[in-house]
Amino acid sequence: MKTIFVTGGAGFIGSAFVRLVLEENADVEIINFDALTYAGNLENLIGLDDARHKFVKGDICVKEEVFAALPENTEAIFNFAAESHVDRSIASASEFVLTNVLGTQVLLDAARAKNVRRFVQISTDEVHGSLPEDDNAFFSETSPIQPNSPYAASKAAAEHFVRAAFETFGVDTITTRCGNNYGPRQFPEKLIPLMISNAMNDEPLPVYGDGRNVRDWIFVEDHARAIWLAYEKGRAGESYNIGARNERQNIEVVKSILDVLGKPHSLIKFVSDRLGHDRRYAIDAAKVETELGWEAQTTWESGLRKTIEWYRANQDWVSRIRNGAYRDYYKNHYGMEIGA
Ligand code: NAD
Ligand code: DAU
Questions:
Q1: What is the tens place of the pLDDT at every residue in 109-132?
Q2: Planar angle of CA 153, 278, 93, nearest 5 degrees
Q3: Ligand 1: does its nearest atom lie under 6 Å from the Cβ of 53?
Q4: What pLDDT is recorded for position 49?
C-alpha cells in the first residue's frame, strides 16, 4: 500500500481527486487533511467510507497538526488546500497569504522532515496574469509569472517557495497549473455553480462588466486525472500547465446554462466589474499532452450537462450552503438577497 497525503480534500477539486484515486488505484490509501473552512464540506466525501480513506481535520498553517498527521516516508503530498476565490481575496487578502503561502511552506518543511518522496503543488493558470484577446496567445510553462489578483499573487508566491525547496533542498516537487474547473460539488460562489443555483431559483444572474472575459474551462475529473499523471510521470522540479482547449466568454457560458435549464435570458443582470478583472485565460496544454500522454476526456457540452444534472439532483446540498454564511457573503458582495 502507498500512503498519500491530500490537503484540501473536502473541497471541490480535492474531493474529486480523492474519489478518482481511490477508484482507480487499489494499492493507494489516502490521508485527507482539511481544515473544513467555509469551502470544505464533509458531504463532499459521502460514499467514501472506503477503508483506504482516512479524514483528519487539521490546518496546513499549524505545524504541529501537520506533523502529527503526516506519517514518515509518505509517498506523496498533494496540496489542494487553499483560499481559492478571487473576489474574497479582493475583499481581504491576509487569509490568502496565510493559507496559500505559509501553509505551503509548512507542508514543504514537513515533506523534508518526514522524507516524503514527492510533493505536488496544485497551482493555477492565474499566476500568469491576463492574456490579450488574441487567439494566438496562450499560457505555457515558460510564460512569465505576473499575477494580478491577491489570490493569484498568493498562489504565485507559493510556487516560488516550492521551487526554492527543489533548488535548495532537493525536495522532489511537481507544480501543476490548471485553468477554470467546473463539475459537481463546486462551492456556489464560483461562476458556473452560482449561475446554476440562481437560475434554478429564478433569481438574477450577476455577470461582471461586459461579460466578454474569457476563461478556459475543464471538467474537474479531467483535471484530477492530469494531476495523478503528473505525479506518476512528471519530472522533478517541473511545472505542468493543464487545460482542455475550451475557451468561452462568460456570457456564452451563462446563456448555455440558462438554455439547458430552460430558463429565460432575461434573468441575466450585468453588474459592476470585478476590480482588476483578468480579461482572458487560455492554456497551451502541449506539455501535458506529449510528456504525460494526457488529454481531456469530457466535452464541454457533456460536462456542462452532467454538472447541471448534479446540481438539480442535489438541491439539498445547495440549499444547506445557501442557508448558511454564504447568504451574508452574497448580500454583502452583490448587494442582493438570495432565496433558500
Ligand atoms: P475549494 O475552495 O473548493 O476547496 C479548498 C479546500 O481547502 C476546502 O476543503 C478547505 O476547507 C480547505 N482548506 C482551506 N484552508 C485550509 C487550511 N488552512 N488547512 C487545511 N485545509 C484548508 O477550492 P478548489 O476549487 O477545490 O481548489 C483546490 C485547489 O486547486 C486550490 O489550491 C486552488 O488554488 C487550485 N485551483 C483551483 C481551480 C478552480 O477552478 N477551482 C483551478 C486551478 C487551480
Ligand atoms: O483559472 C483558474 C482559477 O479559476 C482558479 O485558480 C480559481 O481558484 C477559481 O476561482 C477560478 O478563478 P476565476 O476568477 O476565473 O473564477 P470565477 O468563477 O470567480 O469567475 C469566472 C469568471 O466569471 C470571471 O471572469 C469572473 C466572472 N464572474 C464571476 C462571478 C462569481 C461573473 O461574471 N459573475 C460572478 O458572479
A1: 999 999 999 999 999 999 999 999
A2: 35
A3: no
A4: 73
Active site residues: 125-126, 151
Flag whether 143 is in a domain.
Answer: yes
Is 313 part of any domain?
no
- Inform me whether the pLDDT recorded for 50 exceeds 90: no
Smallest Cα–Cα separation from 243: which of 281, 210, 280? 281
Domain, as residue range, for 87: 2-181+218-242
**Among 124, 179, 174, CA closest to 147:** 124
Whole-model pTM above 0.85?
A: yes
The CATH number of whichever domain residue 68 belongs to comes to 3.40.50.720
Q: For residue 99, which atom of ligand 1 is closest to its CA?
A: 18
Residue 150 has pLDDT above 80, yes or no: yes
With a 6 A CB cut-off, is 176 part of the ligand 1 pocket? no
The answer, yes or no, to whether any atom of ligand 2 lies below 6 A from the CB of 213, is: yes
Ligand 2 nearest-atom number relative to CA 181:
4
Q: What is the pLDDT of residues 297-340, one digit of tens each?
A: 999 999 999 999 999 999 999 999 999 999 999 999 999 999 87
Of all ligands present, the nearest one to the C-alpha of 96 is 1
The answer to whether residue 301 sits within a structural domain is no
* Segments in the chain forming alpha helices (H): 12-24, 63-69, 86-91, 94-96, 103-113, 150-169, 191-200, 220-233, 250-261, 286-291, 300-313, 315-322, 326-334
DSSP state of 162: H
Q: Report if residue 68 sits inside a domain.
A: yes
CB of residue 334 inside a 6 A radius of ligand 2: no
Total number of domains in the chain: 1
Place of cell 474574497: 88
Residue 197 beta carbon below 6 angstroms from any ligand 2 atom: no
Give the burial class of 64: count Cβ atoms within 10 A of its Cβ; 0-12 exposed, 13-18 middle, 19 or more buried.
exposed
- Model confidence at 43: pLDDT above 90: yes
Closest C-alpha to 10, from 74, 56, 49: 56
Ligand 2 centre to CA of 53 (Å) is 31
